[in-house]
Specification:
The complex is a heterodimer of chains A (about 80) and B (about 290). With about 80 residues, chain A is α+β, with helices and mostly antiparallel strands. Chain A is about 40% helix and about 30% strand. Chain A has two helices and four strands; from the N terminus they run E-E-E-H-E-H. Chain A has helices at about 30-50, 65-80, and strands at about 1-5, 15-20, 25-30, 55-60. In chain A, strands 1-2-4-3 form a four-stranded mixed beta sheet, with helices on one face. In chain A, helix 1 links the parallel strand 3 and strand 4. In chain A, helix 1 packs across helix 2. The relative contact order of chain A is 0.34. In chain B, helix 2 (about 40-55) runs parallel beside helix 3 (about 75-80) and helix 11 packs across helix 12. Classes of the chains: A alpha+beta (about 80), B alpha/beta (about 290). The interface of A and B includes residues 12 and 64 of A.
């Protein structure tokens, strides 16, 4: 089961969420040198908030705001669950 | 009270995060025409999360254009987007029945989500049948303004849209009168030829001269001119203060009628002056020491 949301446009990100047997977060960000840990924490907190476990989250970030990353993650999870 | 309303596509983060930079009085985050059917879910989440962090940052009204009542996206739009972070729902293809349906739905959502405020409705009048019902639509609860939807309306009437706008004269006039009668805001259709500056300026001034109180924009470069066109001028504000001052003096002297700059002032002139001052204060066009 997999869900993807977002785009590679500036200020956006693409997030892919895949069901698996453990949690894994992979981040490729144009601002990774400064914000990798902040993005990771945001994803961990959003997964907790949504009670989602055992997924691989892949983020390709083009400088998205926190609210954009969270929104794309929520949509990717909803799309994964809809399959 | 508003002059400019800027449409922002609901699924473009780079535009959404800059929405408040252009001094529009209201932002219309669009879930309808600007968002592909496959991306409606993405757009709803994006707008909701953005507003949860940013809605109180500026003194700008936050409106959402949802998809039409009865369509496949309508219920999810409402359920996911209505919150205390928004001020009004902009309803496309509105008529009496669809506004009443939305009104009931908003009442239910406000109760179930225990919202702290009432969400208003701004119907878009863009069908010939809606023009015929416009007085009734303007009178409905929660309605705070009507938007003329020029593109869809001219399509419905099967008439060509021109830069002169004569084909919209009747519709503009109907909306202006209905809004004036029910003390709500008449909002003009956006000018869609983004780089035709002279056509845009003529169209905006024409709408203002007819009596429209605000105008939509689909590009931020139109906001400054719209704000200027729908604001009182410096001369109008100065005159308004003179009228109010003269009224105070006349009352002290026990005079029922008086003149300002050689012209007789009566009740409607005073009321107009008060309205101009209120508008000038609302849009920060007067300094405190001028009051």
């Amino acid at each position: 089961m997999k869900g993807t949301a977002g785009s590679k446009e500036s200020s956006d990100c693409i997030i892919t969420v895949t069901k698996q047997d453990h949690q894994e977060i992979l981040i490729d960000s144009v601002v990774g040198a400064f914000f990798h840990d902040q993005i990771k924490l945001l994803i961990i907190n959003t997964l907790k908030e949504l009670k989602v476990e055992n997924v691989k989250v892949e983020v390709i970030d083009r400088g998205a705001l926190d609210s954009t990353i969270k929104a794309r993650l929520i949509t990717a999870i909803e799309r994964m669950n809809a399959l | 009270m508003m002059r400019s309303l800027l449409f922002i596509p609901g699924n473009l983060p780079n535009m959404i995060q800059n929405a408040y930079l252009f001094d529009a009085d209201a932002i219309i985050f669009d879930l309808e025409d600007a968002v592909l059917p496959s991306e409606k879910d993405n757009a709803r989440n994006l707008i909701r999360e953005f507003l949860s962090k940013n809605s109180n940052k500026k003194n700008t009204l936050n409106f959402i254009r949802i998809n039409e009542v009865g369509g496949e996206f309508y219920k999810d739009d409402l359920e996911l987007i209505v919150s205390d972070n928004i001020d009004a729902i902009v309803l496309p293809k509105a008529n009496v029945s669809s506004v009443q349906t939305l009104e009931r739905a908003l009442s239910n959502i406000e109760k179930s989500k225990e919202l702290q405020k009432m969400i208003h409705i701004i119907p878009i009048i863009e069908q010939a049948t809606s023009i015929l019902q416009v007085d009734q639509i303007a009178s409905l609860p929660r309605v705070i303004g009507l938007i003329l939807g020029g593109e869809d309306l001219t399509k419905d009437v099967e008439v060509k849209r021109t830069s002169e706008g004569n084909e919209l004269l009747y519709s503009r006039s109907r909306i202006i009168m209905a809004c004036a009668a029910y003390k709500i805001t008449s909002i003009d259709t956006p000018y869609t030829d983004v780089y035709d500056d002279s056509g845009f300026e003529k169209d905006t001034l024409n709408a203002a001269a007819l009596g429209m109180k605000a105008k939509c924009a689909i590009h931020p470069r139109h906001i400054e001119f719209i704000n200027q066109a729908f604001s009182p001028t410096k001369e109008e504000i100065e005159h308004a203060y003179k009228v109010v001052e003269a009224k105070k003096n006349a009352e002290l002297e026990g005079k029922g009628s008086f003149t300002v700059d050689g012209k007789m002032v009566d009740k409607p002139v005073v009321e107009r002056a008060i309205n101009v001052i209120e508008k000038a204060k609302k849009f920060n066009l007067v300094k405190d020491d001028e009051e």
